[in-house]
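--- STAGE predict ---
source: upstream dedup step, 1 unique chain passed
mode: sequence only
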Amino acid sequence: MFLSCRRIPSCWIISLLLGLTLLLAVPVRAAQKHPKSCVWRVTNAKAPFYLVGSIHALSKKDYPLPAPYEIALKNSRRFLFEFDPSRHVEFEKKFEAAGKYPRGQDIRSKIHPDLLAWLRQNILTVEADQRQGRREHVRGFDSQMGYKPWWIAQHLVGPATYTKSSLSHGLDNYFVDRAGKERKEIAGLESVDEHVAVMGGLSDRDSEFILRDALDEPRNAEKEFSRMHKAWRKGDTDALWAGDTRLRTKAPWIAARFVDNRNTKWVPRIEAELKSGKPTAIVAGALHFSGPNSVIKLLEKRGYKIEQL
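--- STAGE serialize ---
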């Protein structure tokens, strides 16, 4: 993992966040008894069909979840996540491979010399030596020249924003665990390769931009995440979308790559699930259900009626 001499948060990571008895319908009156959440129901679908906006890091205090999440879990027999979580091991291997340069290449020829100099002066790496009882060794940045800038950015930002505990309690993991225990179907909106390519396919220029963005915009990660978490708890998609404003302003093509373009690709797959007549829940980062090009807006353009629970 990467360790920085100072903790460097960045809102673009957070934005990405910003994942049985069958009840045939949920009465509107019942849905109005609790605050809005990041759960939507397609009201003119053949069978119960839900869109669930996830947040990838939660605490034990967030449980039990608001009623709409449990309703979606209970009423659905099939769950589609951003990629099939049963292929997580394959994803991790391919994702790490995508974060490294091919043999014979490294970051020195890919980024500006001034940025490289800063990394060498400020970044340390911690490596475990398996031959010495997992003893950790601190090394200079040069030991990790083979990693791409976006990978470095993620490993700089991630530790300042999340903990292993908060990730383990994330909504995605909760839904996966419940679906597994209840022997429900699990699938993905993207293949493993497609999911890896979201970050792994970035150009050198865009990869460097993401790293510079992480370094040039020091912020209080805990405060920013708290704001996004509160918006998610309230089902406030306007606030969630506003959290992505800076990236959309500075690099709209990257913001579109992360969210809008994927929404467009997902909708035909989601519509096929809608037409199957099988009770289903789509679980993805809450930002995919926010903004003018959200999955919700795209489905509504195709004639589907959707209500927020």
